[in-house]
Amino acid sequence: MKTFLNLTTPSSFHLVGFTDLQTGRIPAFFFFFLIYLLILAGNLLIIFVSLMDVCLHKPMYFFLTHLSFLEVFYTTTVIPKLLQNFLLLHQTISFVGCFTQMYFFCIFGGTESILLAVMAYDRYLAICKPLHYSKLMRPKICQNLTLGSWLIGVFASLIPTVSISKLPFCFFSIDHFFCDLLPVLKLSCSDTWLIELSMFVLTSIMSLGTFSWTLMSYAFIIVSILRMSSRGSQERAFSTCAAHLAVVSIYYGTVITMYMGKGSQNHNKLLSVLYSIVTPLFNPFIYSLRNKEVRKAIAWVFCRSKGYCSEK
User: Fold this and answer.
1) Cβ(225)–Cβ(127) under 8 Å?
2) Cα–Cα distance between 31 and 83 in angstroms, integer?
């Protein structure tokens, strides 16, 4: 039971981070710095190639471009501060900085949850409704689906972030490596059950709802794949779907377990690394760089930049 100490609005918080890595802070710094560079390189490459090559101006790559954009900013809200804290002895973050980080992390995470469901629906239409695909996924519809994902992420993130920021705090040490919702909420001495209930509902809708939609879309896709006459086509399609489902399951599974489970804080930190750092690292390779069209586009763009290739 929390003891009511000095109820106040703090000027800053202390980030506990990874206590087990304190003796190896420099190797940890270079490890996460390398991961961050790979995330930036992979996702920015997808964005650049998708914009440059007209052959990739299709709904699937339109959504992948937005996913890569999200991954860049999603990790940028977390990793730079984490890297800074590995180098500094005083691991603090200002009150404003903490809730700014929290808000943008929620925006990018919530938007990504919805966008992944939209991308699964896009693949469902492409494989199960090929004759109607061009009509059902017109550019205007793709733009509206993407805009809707962003708007839901922006406005849904306001509810928990603003609610928590208004609370009085009597503890100032966040047992995490960034300002996440639950660790910060635990610092308040006031009654937080209503905020916890709203977070549970939002997580159920944003994560469980979109995950269920994604699984349902892929279930229909798998049924369509099984009806294919060519065994080679079946194997390629299953390989792609399995890779997509693996990444999606890691992302949704860790988010749902984190925000709806009752694990230890060290366990939650590990889950946070999986969905905020590991998944953005794998997404460019799973969704794009394994794709023959994308690899061909990358080769053409770089060939053209060297002056070896003419216009397509």
Assistant:
1) yes
2) 10
User: CA 207 from chain center: how many Å?
Assistant: 11
127-154 confidence digits (pLDDT tens): 888 888 989 999 999 999 999 999 999 9
| C-alpha to C-alpha distances, 122 to 12, 232, 248, 255, nearest whole angstrom | 44, 23, 15, 23
| β 173-174/92-94 pair status | unpaired
Strand order in the sheet with 92-94: 92-94, 12-15, 173-174
Tally Cβ neighbours within 10 Å of residue 269: 22
At residue 53, φ and ψ (nearest 5 deg) are -95, 115
**Token pair for 91:** 């691991």
**Where does 88-230 have alpha helices with state H?**
95-128, 133-136, 139-165, 181-185, 193-203, 210-226
Residues 6+ apart with CB under 8 A from 62: 50, 139, 142, 146
- Report pTM: 0.86
What torsion do the CA atoms of 121, 127, 128, 129 make, to the nearest 10 degrees? 90
